[in-house]
Amino acid sequence: MTQSANFPAPARDICGTMLVHRRLLNDSMTYRAQRARIENRALQYETGRRSAVRNEVLTIPVVVHVVHNPAHPEQNVGDAQVHSQIDVLNRDFRAANADVSQVPEVWRPLVADARIEFALATRDPLGNPTEGITRIETDRDGFDTSDTVKAAETGGADPWPSDQFLNLWVCQLQGGLLGYAQFPGGPPQTDGVVILHTAFGTTGCAASPFDGGRTATHEIGHWLDLLHIWGDDDGACSNDDRVGDTPNQASSNTGKPAFPHVTCDNGPNGDMFMNYMDYVDDEAMFMFTRGQSERMDACLEGARASFVVAHQVGTAKAPAAAPAAEAPSEAAAPAAPSVPPQAPAAAPAPAAPAAAPAAAATGGNGHAAHDSEVERLLREVLSEVQDALGIVTGDGR
Ligand SMILES: [Zn+2]
Fold first, then answer.
1. CA 277 – ligand 1 centroid, Å
2. In 3D, which of 196, 213, 195 has the Cα closest to residue 90?
3. What per-residue confidence (pLDDT) applies to 312?
4. What spacing in Å lies between the alpha carbon of 172 and ligand 1's midpoint?
5. How many CB atoms lie within 10 A of CB 321?
6. Quick one: which of 33, 48, 40 has its CA closest to 290?
7. CA dihedral defined by 329, 332, 337, 343, rounded to 10 degrees?
8. What is the pLDDT of residue 381?
9. Is pTM beyond 0.90 here?
10. 18-48: burial string, b at 16+ Cβ within 10 Å, e else
11. Lower CB density within 10 Å: C or N end of the chain?
12. Could you say which of 39, 131, 219, 330 is catalytic?
């Protein structure tokens, strides 16, 4: 029974992420290879062959590029609108959103705290203080999924280094497009998320029914490797989102569906249309699942490991009482005395492994990770980064 397969596709091109994905698959052997690696890693997490090393909350630095045409002043969204968006993200990715209480009882045990938070950058790429917002004037009437908003020379704004910052571009998008993301594994110069200015945040020019900040939640879900919950198979029920705990569903849902909505023989509970990775109105979506959180973990300990490493090092530096000179000392990590000291000599890049045990010891988030776990993570991420760099530089672009 595939009722929704008979419904027409949404008239609005709500999310352009799969368009970008297919374009990159066609154009880039590098992307295809990277996607295969990333999917393989995600599968290892899903099947339990690997598991998340990270326990603590990770904070991802964000830069918001407001690209606006002076003829349309509302495109120059204010700081309050930007901050309202960050607030939504920090609730949604921690399952701290008030509307999570609306998750049907049968799925409440699946609701996940992804242990991810977002903060506007306080230092720009040169190390200077910043509010984490750039404002760029453009003479363009609007943008599409062709990435022109991501470069100054095509009327947009250049990204900040995408291995250190989540780049969010806010602009006028055309054709009913609410936003699009680039999955991990793509070109660094176009890595990030683009969001329509009227679907950004909860104040200012944000317009109903997309004024709940959930377009960014959805698109950042893609940026962290989540697929659409229906598997983009045009109602065929043959493809899913490669997450075990989300029911297979035929196609996207829109508006505010009534529970249950059964497709693909997924009764009695039907589609999990209240998931952030469906297409429903902002006020009708309010959950990620544990399986989705695990897939994000695989991404953050793989293709996006630079954020985890930077966070660890940053945590070590943060307390004023822990001068940098202490970092290399093994004695600075008394949190897990029963763990025999690991020999750090095998690690190829000495700076990060030396700093990480100090991060564990200082326990910046109230979580003292075991040294051995941190070192295992660092060894994994360093090899991932090296592999990734090797492939990217071989692309000859
Ligand atoms: Zn999407």
1. 6
2. 213
3. 86
4. 18
5. 6
6. 48
7. -20
8. 64
9. no
10. eebbebbeeebebbeebbebbbebbeebbee
11. C
12. 219
